[in-house]
Amino acid sequence: MTEGAAFMDWSSTSPEQIWRNSESTVEGNSSSRTADHMTDLCSDEADNSPPLQPHTLKQFEQHLNDLKKENFSLKLRIYFLEERIQQKYEESSEDVYRTNIELKVEVESLKKELQEKQELLDKALYVCK
Q1: Which of 18, 35, 24 has its CA nearest to residue 1?
Q2: Cα dihedral 8, 13, 18, 20 sign
Q3: Residues 45, 111 contacting (CB under 8 angstroms)
Q4: Distance CA 63, CA 37 (A)
Q5: What is the pTM of this model?
Q6: Which CA distances in Å does 66 have to 51, 69, 72?
Q7: 40, 57, 75, 104 — which has fewest CB within 10 A?
Q8: Which residues form a coiled coil (predicted)?
């Protein structure tokens, strides 16, 4: 994972952009890591490649620490994305409730107006007879 991704401005970036950026970063990192591990773990005897080079404990610890940092960063990204989604859901549901109430009020006022006009029509019909 790149250093810049850890200090990303979450407020100005949409979740879709963050997801696309993280996918490309993770895919790039994981594919290169996979290729590195494959070359480390597999020696093709037909190529007469040199034998596998042993890794030191320090290298394994460094790799483990890098993976832990990446894991933490991804968990943090998931947390903020879920929080953003929840906020958008709450805002949209509040808008729906507000609109629903406004529409109910409008329906009642239109019913009252219709009733008044119906009474005026009945009066006009009675006067004409």
Answers
A1: 24
A2: negative
A3: no
A4: 11
A5: 0.39
A6: 26, 5, 10
A7: 57
A8: 57-127
Does the CA dihedral 73-77-83-87 come out positive or negative?
A: positive
The model's pLDDT over 14-73, given as tens digits with 9 standing for 90+, comes to 556 655 665 555 545 544 444 444 444 444 445 565 556 678 999 999 999 999 999 999
As a whole number of angstroms, the distance between CA 43 and CA 46 comes to 9
**Could you tell me if 39 and 51 are in contact, meaning their C-beta atoms sit under 8 angstroms apart?**
no
| Structural tokens at position 82 | 């879920």
Tokens of 113: 């107006």
Of 31, 26, 36, which Cα lies nearest the Cα of 63?
A: 36
Name the residue with tokens 């729906």: 96
Q: What percent of the chain has pLDDT over 70?
A: 59
Q: What are the phi and psi torsion angles at 16 (to 5°)?
A: -65, -40
